[in-house]
Amino acid sequence: MHYLLWVTLLGLLAGSYSEERPHPHPHPHPHPHPHPHPHPRPCKSPPQAEGSLVAAAANGDIYGLGMYVYDAIGQRIRFGDFIQYKNQTSHDDVLLLYKEQVMYKINTQNKTCIKRKLTATFHPVEIPENANLLAQVVLGSSSGPGEGLLVNSWSGEIPEEEVKYLLAFTEVGCIPISIVYYRPQTGWIATSFFNIDVGIKHPSLLTPPPFCLNATMESGGEGGFFSTFL
Q: What is this structure's pTM?
């Protein structure tokens, strides 16, 4: 059941990226509050990142928690997760290679692979140009230094894919905080992102391991990013 639903959520893909995690400064910044931007604009997130996410379906049947490695330059995503689907628990490790149109489900312990055709289109993590700005808000508190995060909330549709979405990205850095995403095939899926670092520290995770190289394409097995969940 785990190959029907991971379609485009990370293709549009709470925390923040950090090119370098800042060290505490001995003297607080003289301006302790997040500064609103008068004209928030659609933006593109950093093209490479590693982090974690949690996703859940509106009907409560699906819950997933995992790490991911994201490479928009090479159009590759690695996702290792814990998934609960209708009271059944599984641990999946999936590599999506969009340029090759191939997805691998990897079992490192047994050194086995399931190889399937990847039917989804890769979309970089971004706010689409035609998205509608809903509001600019502070997550947390604006009462003291370091207590709040300035975030822009957006909504929109992709008519050709019958998609509706609600997005929350940081004003500074264009970092995804949450994505709520609807498709007729899946219903509403809500995803939150956290512990994110800009760049890829483990590039080998985006290459099929040697024991996958001889895997044959399964007939009738097609999927996309969210098919890991069903």
A: 0.76
